[in-house]
Design brief:
Layout (H helix, E strand, L loop, with lengths): L1 H12 L46 E3 L2 H4 L8 H17 L4 E4 L3 E4 L1 E2 L4 E3 L1 E4 L2 E5 L4 E4 L6 E8 L3 E4 L2 E3 L20 E7 L4 E6 L2 E3 L4 E14 L2 E3 L4 E14 L2 E3 L8 E5 L6 E7 L2 E3 L4 E5 L3 E6 L2 E3 L11 E4 L4 E4 L2 E3 L9 E6 L11 E4 L2 E3 L2 E13 L2 E3 L3 E12 L2 E3 L13 E11 L2 E2 L2 E2 L10 E3 L7
């Protein structure tokens, strides 16, 4: 009965506005969608192209550990950092485009200032390759910020190794100016300094006090075939990025300090645009899997997202804000116990007001196992051919919903709530056709001019 009461509370609260970082505005949200160049499946075409790094030569240098006196047995971080950096600097000055780190465990860390611990810097026009078994690890420290690898310049590749943080031994000393101890800016790879054309491939990145990787004001950045896990804040944070591709990665067990998402697009005051997140496997992420708070032209395609045994979502799996432009298609989402939002595989937050554009949010061909979706206080959504198995689809205070050929099924665990596991509306305009509730065509009388409301009807209660 306790679980049933919780579901009833969720249903009662589902049309109450969720928390938001956006300023409240009572203006209208828009007057319809702009014209988009659509593909054969009705999705906006991807018109951007992410540029990969290209090396100007094939000159290769395998770092000579004896010559540079570099420990590779996880000792003497100060010596390792200074001498490894000297070898990298020399190779760059000599014009080597590929620098290879030999097998071994390299403990690094340099005391830069009161809040930042330095690691290793990689320069432009460099392919930095880890030999099999090579591990780069940040030494135990008490700093709020660090980068195990920091990128300086354009045209850089990092591949084939392991980066490890110090979350298990980190000293969370209170910050002098405010006494806080979050220490959530310890990163594996920092793609910043306005870097362009960066590839991170086949890396294991784990145990960071902050993010597996931070992208800050960078362009043409690609993450492919990486295993990113057990970081405290995020798997990947995009805080100002244009033309970013995240493909074929496993991002999991993100936990420790908010927001705790697999991928977080959140660059207030910066440009986050043309982002492709596809064919990734997300699981056991505490906050959620993907959150888009600020991105335009963000494509979330063909991903697998699982809540995971024993994991409780705080927010996700997929979250966007109504001022963003997001395309969500062909993902498979599986939830168990749900989050603070109930079992919503996708939720769009809003404080209302003008969203700044009239482009639609596209939600096409997703399979949501034991979950549904909810959008509110916004406008322009194109929702087609999705399967919401065991939960509901809901819109509240929303203009211009296009709802076509979706399937909603009843919750098998809560048969007394069967009619609440369907299509819910409060003050909504738009159009609907071909939508099924189980095997029955659901007549949804949406109108483009008159708002429609359909309250939840409890079966047997």
């Amino acid at each position: 009965m306790k679980n049933l009461t919780n579901y009833l509370l969720i249903l009662a609260m589902i049309f109450i506005a969720s928390c938001s970082n956006e300023d409240i505005d009572t203006n209208d949200s828009g007057n319809g969608t702009s014209s988009e160049d659509l593909d054969e499946n009705g999705l906006p075409k991807i018109i951007f192209d992410i540029q990969l790094p290209t090396m100007s030569n094939d000159q290769e240098y395998i770092i000579d550990l004896a010559r540079w006196d570099i420990p590779n047995n996880r000792t003497d971080a100060i010596k390792t950092t200074a001498n490894l950096q000297a070898a990298i600097d020399w190779a760059h000055q000599e014009g080597y485009s590929r620098v290879i780190l030999p097998t071994g465990e390299y403990l690094v860390g340099e005391d830069v200032n009161n809040i930042y611990q330095g690691g290793i810097e990689i320069y432009e026009n460099t392919e930095f390759v880890f030999s099999p078994g090579a591990i780069l690890e940040i030494d135990t420290n008490n700093k709020w910020n660090y980068c195990v690898i920091s990128l300086k310049g354009d045209n850089i590749i990092i591949r084939d190794g392991t980066i490890k943080g110090d979350r298990d031994t980190h000293v969370f000393t209170p910050r002098e100016n405010d006494g806080k101890t979050a220490h959530d800016e310890g990163h594996g790879i920092c793609v910043w300094n306005k870097s362009n054309q960066v590839l991170v491939k086949n890396m294991i990145i784990h145990n960071l006090t902050g993010d597996g990787s931070l992208v800050l004001d960078a362009n043409d950045v690609t993450f492919i075939d990486n295993n990113i896990y057990n970081n405290r804040r995020q798997g990947i944070s995009i805080v100002g990025g244009t033309r970013i591709e995240i493909k074929d990665n496993e991002i999991h067990h993100i936990n420790g300090t908010t927001p705790q998402f697999g991928i977080d697009i959140e660059g207030p005051g910066r440009i986050d645009e043309d982002i492709l997140i596809h064919k990734n496997y997300f699981h056991h992420n505490t906050g959620g899997d993907i959150v888009n708070t600020s991105g335009e032209n963000v494509y979330i395609l063909d991903n697998s997202m699982e809540q995971g045994d024993g994991n409780t979502y705080v927010d996700g799996p997929i979250v966007s804000w109504h001022k963003t432009h997001t395309i969500i298609a062909r993902n498979t989402i599986t939830m168990d116990s749900g989050s603070v939002n109930g079992r919503l595989g996708y939720i769009q937050y809003s404080s209302g007001g003008d969203k700044g554009h009239n482009r639609a949010t596209y939600v096409h061909d997703n399979v949501c196992n034991n979950c549904g979706m909810y959008m509110y206080k916004s406008a322009d959504a194109d929702v087609r051919r999705n399967k919401f198995l065991g939960y509901f689809v809901a819109f509240s205070d929303f203009k211009n919903v296009v709802l076509i050929d979706n399937l909603v099924t009843y919750s098998q665990e809560h048969p007394n709530l069967r009619f609440c596991w369907s299509y819910r509306f409060k003050e909504v305009t738009g159009s609907a056709s071909g939508n099924l509730l189980e095997d029955t065509l659901e007549e949804i009388p949406l109108s483009e001019t008159t708002t429609y409301t359909m309250q939840c009807v409890l079966d047997g209660w």
